[in-house]
Amino acid sequence: MADTPQPEADENWWRGAVIYQVYPRSFADSNGDGTGDLAGVRSRLPYLAELGVNALWFNPWYPSPMADGGYDVADYRDVEPVFGTLAEAEKLISEAVALGIRTIIDIVPNHISAAHPWFREALAAGPGSPARERFWFRPGRGANGELPPNNWPSQFGGPAWTRTTNPDGTPGDWFLNLFDSEQPDLNWNHPEVRAEHEDILRFWFDRGAGGVRIDSAAMVTKDPLLPDLPTDPGAPATPHPYIDRDDLHEIYRGWRRIADSYDKTRILVGEVWLPDSERFARYLRPDEMHTAFNFDFLSCPWEPARLRASIDTTLAAHEPVSAPATWVLCNHDVTRTVTRYGRADTGFDFATKAFGIPTDLELGTRRARAAALLTLALPGSVYLYQGEELGLPEAEDIPRDKLQDPMYLRSGGTNPGRDGCRVPMPWAGTSQPFGFSPEGSAEPWLPQPADWAARTAEVQSADPASMLSLYRAAVRLRAAEPGLGDGPLRWLPTVPEVLAFRRGERFVCLVNLSAVPAELPRHEEILLTSGPLSDDGRVPADTAVWLHV
After folding, report:
1. How many whole angstroms from its chain centre is CA 341?
2. Is 332 left (phi over 0), alpha (psi -120 to 50) or beta?
3. Active-site residue flag, 215
4. DSSP states of 299-332 as a string?
């Protein structure tokens, strides 16, 4: 297939891009089945162009049983029929390019779906077969193999092992699944696994994808001895048997060589959750990934000292490898910003997710508006999860029998899971489906809150004070302002509860996180504010301002 043209722009576009995350199942439904699809995304490309984003990152759109929202991939070279066809994906990529928008697709190298032909072949072939060498099949421990091969936990709760059943009905070997039991882990020591994924990269790059986002990028390779994790919390495994192993870097260097073989820039973006900033930066060396997600900032509470420390730590970690930082407030896995910032604990931690946490949405919205200006003013690229530009809160009133996330199901109903941030987008109208689906369609796959009528894109487009209008103005100014995007940051002296920094020659961002109004520095022009200033021209609490000085 001929290489689809990419937008004409600087080959380093990714260093300061605004990238919009599309969760296809919940973005726009064109055919009325209650599930978002690629034709729906195509119909909303003008909205995304007006927002001013440079690229779209799509969560998986591949054929999948949807045991984990599409991260259980059954075929990497096709599109889930619910979402459309491969031809539809090619049209979407091409039409976005025509609007100056690149497409980044999700790659899930750690595991595949239990419905994938490889895994079906492995189950049918039986113990000791070559087909099983692509995975981690092992006999169990205990007198009759009734115990898992080791003590590794699943990311979704419970053991990371599932036992098979032999053709005669007797219990068989176990297979490793660090996530759901429908997501068997691949063995990256196997040459066919490596070759397959390199070919998948070429398949999508040939169809015009501008990059790939690598899911669970630090968990792909395993210690072949599969040792137990230490049971003493004070004695962490060193090296860890399946997180941040040194042999990962050889894989990503190979992927970078493939990306660099194309005329137009194709980027690699890693989902890398690591507390060690030096280890994190190793993934961003010039011959590995271009960028990686910044989870420290995403999970940081709305506190001035913590935010400044997170910004400084992030920039310091990226500086030795000359990689741009990335900034994100929310994604398809975490509590939405408006809700989180309205709680007593404004940070994010999977371990603290629970039902019934009180939230002040007015306060959360005010802080989320300020955080939008803070984030868009920082050096590097910014990821914007769908619905954040509308100020959508977490949907916390979904009936229990409608929840589908394995985090909820495997927790025994104690963890609300991630469905609350995945509810379909409200586009227009006064009742469900709020323009997500055509009128008279099937109900959306997750129910939408009734009060989202006031938060639709249609309503907000007509309101110059809305969250959508704020984001449109901020993204437009970011593109026009020479000092923004990639480049240096210089902190300005302020009281501890106020963050202020300079970008370029004239641009200043000030964020007041104190409980009292803050003075503006001397300036020539106020470019944008996240909320109204006080009558005497000071900056109220939880408000951000962009200035020319």
Report:
1. 19
2. alpha
3. yes
4. T--S-HHHHHHHHHHHHHHHGGGTPPPEEES--T
Closest to 8 measured CA to CA, from 83, 102, 127, 114: 102
Which position among 215, 296, 333, 389 bears the catalytic label? Answer: 215
Reference 154, options 181, 188, 123, 114; nearest CA is 181
68, 271, 333, 405: the active-site residue: 271
Question: Can you tell me the distance from the alpha carbon of 427 to that of 41, in angstroms, rounded to the nearest whole number?
Answer: 12
Consecutive H or E run containing 162: strand 161-165
Residues contacting residue 283 through CB under 8 Å, at least 6 positions apart: 217, 218, 248, 249, 252, 270, 272, 289, 292
Which run of H or of E encompasses 214? strand 211-214
The number of C-alpha atoms within 13 Å of 253 and in the hemisphere containing its C-beta is 8
Average pLDDT of the residues of the chain = 95
| pLDDT tens per residue, range 423-480 | 999 999 999 999 999 999 999 999 999 999 999 999 999 999 999 999 999 999 999 9
Report strand pairing: 211-214 vs 267-270.
Answer: parallel
Per-residue pLDDT reduced to its tens digit, 343-361: 999 999 988 999 999 999 9
**Cα–Cα dist 14/380, whole Å:** 8
C-beta separation of 514 from 540 below 8 A? no
Query: What was the pLDDT predicted at 352?
Result: 92
Q: What percent of the chain has pLDDT over 90?
A: 91
**Which H or E run contains 57?**
strand 55-58
Rg (CA), the chain: 24
Bridge partners of 94? none
Task: Find all residues with CB under 8 Å of 154, minimum gap 6, and list them.
Answer: 160, 177, 178, 179, 180, 410
Averaged pLDDT, 316-332 = 95
pLDDT at position 278 is: 87
Which residues, listed in sequence order, are joined to residue 500 by a DSSP beta bridge?
510
β 55-58/18-22 pair status? parallel
Residue 6 has a pLDDT of 54
Helix pair angle (191-206, 248-260), 10° resolution: 30
CB-neighbour burial class of residue 65 (10 A; exposed 0-12, middle 13-18, buried 19+): middle
Greater pLDDT, 232 or 184? 184
Q: Which long-range contacts (CB under 8 A, 24 or more apart) does 198-205 make?
A: 198/254, 198/255, 198/258, 200/76, 200/77, 200/107, 201/107, 201/255, 201/258, 201/259, 202/258, 203/76, 203/77, 204/105, 205/3, 205/258, 205/259, 205/262, 205/266
DSSP letter for 436, please. S
> Cα 430–435–438 angle (5° rounding)?
120
- The pTM score is 0.94
Q: What is the mean pLDDT of residues 251-260?
A: 98
As a 3-state breakdown, the chain gives helix, strand, coil percent values, each rounded to 5, of 30, 15, 55
> Residue 275 — pLDDT band, cuts 50, 70, 90?
confident
Angstrom distances, CA of residue 299 to CA of 68, 296, 373, 499: 22, 5, 17, 18
Using DSSP bridges, classify how beta strands 490-491 and 498-503 pair: parallel, antiparallel or unpaired.
antiparallel
